[in-house]
Amino acid sequence: MKYISLDSDEGDSIIDDSLIEETGSVPPVNHPKKHSKTIKRTRSINLSELASHIGTTEKKPRHEKILSSSSKLSANLSIKSVSPSPSSSSSSPPSSSSSSSPSSSWVDKYSPTSINDIAVHPRKIKEVRTKLTSMLYHDYPPRLLILTGPSGSGKSTMVKLLSQELLSKPVLEWINPSTIKNTSHVDAFSEFLKAAKYCQGQNLSIILVEDLPFIFHEPTKDAFQAAVYQWLHYDPLTTLPPLVICLTEENFENDKNNNNFASWDITNNFSVDTVFGHKVLQSHGKYQQIKFNPVNATLMTKTLKRIVNDNSQLFNHHQLKSYLPKLVASGDIRSAILSLQCWGSWRSKAHQLPGVTDSMYLVFGKDVSFDLFHIIGKIIYGSQKVQPADLLRYSEEIPGNRQSPPDKKNCFNGLYLKKSSSDNSLSLKSSPTDQPYNIKLATNYVLCNTILASNTLDLRLLSLLILENYAIYNCSHYKLSKASKILKILSLVDTFPKWQVDLEVATDLVVRGTRISLEQDISKNQVMYLDNLGKWSLINGEKLLKNEESLRNDDKKFPLKSQGQFVNPHQKSSTSNHRSSNHHDKLGFPRDFKLMKKSRHTKDAVNFHRYQKSQTSSSTIGILSFNDTNLYHGYYEAVINQQKQFKGKSYGYIAQQFKDKNYAGHPPSRLQNKIDELSQWSTQKNLLIKRLGGEINSNGGDQAGGTVSTMMGDLGRNNIAEYYKNYEIYQGNFGEENDYSEGELEDDPIDDDGDDDNVGGGDNWSDGEMMSDSDLDNF
Amino acid sequence: MSLWVDKYRPKSLDSIDYHFNISKRLKSLASSGDFPHLLVYGPSGAGKKTRILATLQELYGPGVNRMKIDVRTFKTPSNRKIEFNIVSSPYHIEITPSDLGNNDRIIIQDLLKEIGQTEQIDFQTGKHRFKIVIINEADSLSRDAQAALRRTMEKYSTNIRLILISNSTSNIIPPIKSRTLLIRVPLPTVNEIVGVLSKIAEKEDIRLPSNEDEKSSILAKIAEHSDRNLRKTILSFEALAMTNDSISSACKLVELDWEKVIADLSKQVVKDRSVKNLSQSRSVLYELLSHCIPAKIILKELTFNLLCDPRVTDPMKYDIVDASSLFDERLSLGSKDIFHLEGFLARSMVIMESKK
Q1: Which of A423, A505, A696, B162 has its CA 20 to 30 A from that of B20?
Q2: List of chain A residues whose C-beta atoms are within 8 Å of the C-beta of residue B94
């Protein structure tokens, strides 16, 4: 039994009602204290009830709905539920409502009401629960929990349900205000957090931020980051309520007009790094991050099946069998349920319409867009499987094949579709007379089409990724000419002026060119066999022949073992294991961004040196050109200066010897001259002691940063460090008459600049950033 | 105390050690009372800038050496502010527009207009009414900027004389070439460089072999190793003198670090022709590029290093040069150097593999 009571208990409310109406945000102290204990609600049920009371049965965007309801709530509505036992607050709502009100969204209707219903892996639930519990009840816990993951993976739902479980009350959620009276939009969030600090004791609740402030606006972002930073570093003795921030990470296509691709910031990458910034992320121990994966197939299927069973009259179970896997593949449970509902209700009406074919059902469902690594994986590794829908879509275009006989089902252009029993995906199978290459060609064609159809491709990034990763294929053991072909294509595409050649053409060229270049190699270098599932697979030639060297030099030696070779299951499993673990190297992230950053710093250092040099009295030529400075002076000056420094020390030592042994009281005048000269030299400011822009590492500096100190500030600091070192050595060994290093320390003009922006310099993107295992699993 | 390159730079036209013809001509120009716009071109390290500054001294006296740096702020059409450094003396002003990239037209227009509109008042010498504007690296000026320059040259010719410095005239538009007096400064010969170096060695008290032949052969070796680029030669000579107490033919020359890296890379390419090595050399290329070594120079060095390698046979050489020219063009057209450089390496590897 639940009821809604209209409660005009305004006396407890501290904040002016009208303001709340306007802002729509829920100030933390707003829940009337005397109700705070008894409030128990589950969002979906209350929403539907509310909706019926308020009279909005239309589907609204989710947060708007919450917004309207919660603002009403905070004004004068409080909802009590007479503590229902968990079992009676059934996981399936009354069936009467499901049939009588088809307009209500299944996403809300079937949203989980207890933590056990949620379609998230139990281990993940446990992890989050442990974290939250420790945040609630332990001393010095992390103050911030960041949940990341794709949309529809149950991040916020879980937090809300855990709040019910742990505190028996709803979360306190930040909702972006639409209008604000007293504070600016920029500061609204920090105001919210400030107020949220006091949610303690009886008011203790979990604070959820899902609807981030508009952080694409620079000042708002800064204010947001500052607020979070303050939250983390607020008086460490105080216990703060747990703050949970949910983040859906994504990449954006870069602004086409923006040629400066150097930036890697929030405008093209919405991730934990860009949203929170280095300052927050360096507060180790103060925050925790948990990554959510897309909802896995088993849980998703379970949930969808439950819904289907509940509405069995809507579905054609035969069609459903082929439709469900497509929904499941998206990993987004919200979208899947929505699609299912649309499809279900469409199916129930469709038979009345003329000209509706079965294939039309394919239009529903989330367009599975791949992330970039996934795409690169597909391009480079290739795939033996294709999605049935894709195959259907592109079957008629597959080049170079015969027309399929119209009477045979599942036969395209001489290739047969073979359904894999395990995951319902289709693979192509040729009739025994066909060449295996034919299959590969068709599969590749479909694969490339699928990749090209996904709209997340940025040509520049794609090319760079391919460049970085083409060599990982088969651990670089393939013919050089293939690599050359790929590079030729990349080089060619790079010269395409953007305004002349359609980007799609260029992308097409890159994707297909790379795939086919690598693919031709497979057909010669590797052995195809038909396994006991009737699926074509590849074994690495290397594995079979164990002769790596000859493989690289001449792969024509290997006969193309013809198709139809059956391998016993035992042997098969061992080879497939080998294939998945050792076959290719790991994918890497392009180093180009790092390069840009480094070269900018080199440029700064060189320019700084140029202009500084032209200001000193020794300059007789005005400004040196950039290249001269960088190419010649950058190195030779450093060498000369180092040597002079060394000589200065050794001459000083010799002079000391003269003095000690009392050779005529003084060192010879020639030596004295040298010493004077060198000590005069070393009082110059900003001597170049290290190569401008850092050493050039002949190994390519692949060994994580460190060797190359590129920044201007670094340059200055290295100088100082160098001087310190020399000074100490000097003091230790030679006494104190030569004090040239001191002047340097005191008034180094670049001592105090460039400190702040160095902080994040080195660790932004490490070379060839490795992918996480979960990403690899996707392939 | 300064580097030898700076210390021994001739200050006057008379003290320049080679290309006496050019010096003579400049001197007569300077004394003629009027002065044309100049376009001085020639390879790097030939002494263009030195000659120009010496000419300025001839024109205005030692006042030109009192140089200072101003930071000027300009506004782009998109209302962004750019800061730009200008080296100037009372008589001349020196700009390097390539520092500004695409906004060089703004600088050319605003700055030259500003200078051109104010008449030069000189109480000390009173010789010339015009101010000199030196534009370094004129070949990297954009087309836009060059067109703007052309109009300025005509309009303000009473108050401004331009001296353009560039490595070649191929990037300069014809209207500018026709409005300037072209002066080519070629590289000094090896013998001329040897003369310069021995002069320095004498003054610096450097211990060289007493045998005259041996001495000049060492100096010639240094000069040739530095491609007769005088700046590079003197720098490397100083580095050599600093690393060795006395210079003999046994001394190892101080190689430029990036040249060494490229030489190593090309050796590696000839030795190990595989996809694995290709991806390893990418790291080296990235390292070079991140040090702002121009991609074209990398390509050139790589090509010559490959051609000089004894393992590269004649038929390969044709194809390597061919590939090099192809990727050189791609470098000009494209925007990401790494594709083309690695493309060239892959192509060369394939060539060497197939013609083996």
Answers
A1: B162
A2: 622-623
Number of Cβ within 10 Å of residue A355's Cβ equals 5
When the pLDDT of each residue in chain A is averaged and rounded to a whole number, the result is 62
Bridge-based pairing state of the strands B131-135 and B160-166: parallel
Note the pLDDT tens digit of each residue in A273-326: 777 877 777 777 778 888 888 888 888 888 888 888 887 777 767 767 767 776
Alpha-carbon radius of gyration of chain A: 34
- A476/B338 CB distance under 8 A: no
- Helix (H) or strand (E) holding A146, with range, is strand A144-148
Query: What is the C-alpha separation between A506 and A508, in angstroms, rounded?
Result: 5
Q: Tell if the CB–CB gap between A467 and B1 is shorter than 8 Å.
A: no
Mean pLDDT, range A43-68, rounded to an integer:
40
The sign of the CA dihedral A548, A549, A553, A558 is negative
Q: Which residues pair with B135 in a beta bridge?
A: B95, B164
Smallest Cβ–Cβ distance between B276 and the set A471, A620, A628 belongs to A471
Closest CB to B291 among A481, A602, A702: A602
CA distance A149 to A132: 18
Chain B: nearest CA to A521, how far in angstroms? 13
Q: Smallest Cβ distance to A700: which of B273, B283, B327?
A: B283
Binding-face residues of A in 479-498 toward B, CB within 8 A:
480-484, 487-488, 490-492, 494-495, 497
Asked if A564 contacts A432 with a C-beta cutoff of 8 angstroms, the reply is yes
Q: Which of residues 639-668 of A touch B (CB under 8 A)?
A: 639-640, 643-644, 647
Rounded to a whole number of angstroms, the distance from the CA of B320 to the nearest CA of chain A is: 14
Q: Select, from the ranges A414-418, A667-671, B66-70, the one with the highest average predicted confidence (pLDDT).
A: B66-70
- Measured distance CA(B178)–CA(A732) in Å, rounded: 66
Q: Do A598 and B342 touch (CB under 8 A)?
A: no
ipTM: 0.86
Q: How many CA atoms lie within 13 A of B143 on its CB side?
A: 0
Residue in A closest to B231 by C-alpha: A632
Give backbone dihedrals phi and psi of A323, rounded to 5 degrees, phi first.
Answer: -85, -40
Token pair in block for residue A183: 């504070």
Residue A432: per-residue pLDDT: 47
Q: Any bridge partners for residue B163, and if so which? A: B38, B134
DSSP summary character for residue A201: G
Helix axes B275-290, B337-354, angle to 10 degrees: 140
Cβ of A480 within 8 Å of Cβ of B278? The answer is yes
A139-162 residues labelled b (16+ CB within 10 A) or e (exposed): eebbbbbbbbbbbbbbbbbbbbbb
Between vectors from CA B146 to CA B142 and to CA B150, what angle results, nearest 5°? 170
Length of chain B (residues): 356
Sheet strands (E) in B126-263: 131-135, 160-166, 181-184
| CA neighbor of A743 nearest in space, from A733, A732, A751, A735 | A751
Please indicate whether, in this complex, the C-beta atoms of A618 and B6 are within 8 angstroms of each other: yes
Q: Which residue has the higher pLDDT, A643 or A361?
A: A643
- Which residue of chain B is at minimal alpha-carbon distance from A487? B343
> How far is the C-alpha of A380 from the C-alpha of A726, rounded, in Å?
52
What pLDDT was estimated at residue A25?
A: 41
Tokens 């050599």 -> residue: B240
How many Cβ atoms are within 10 Å of B81's Cβ, its own excluded?
8
Long-range pairs for A647-651: beta carbons < 8 A, 24 or more residues apart: A647/A674, A647/A678, A647/B242, A648/A675, A648/A678, A648/A679, A648/A681, A648/A682, A648/A740, A649/A726, A649/A729, A649/A730, A649/A734, A651/A675, A651/A678
| Contact flag B254-A488 (C-beta cutoff 8 Å) | no
Q: CB B275 to CB A606 under 8 A?
A: no
Residues A354 and A272: their CA atoms lie apart, in Å, by 50
Which residues from chain B sit within 8 angstroms of residue A623, using beta carbons?
85, 87, 94, 96, 136
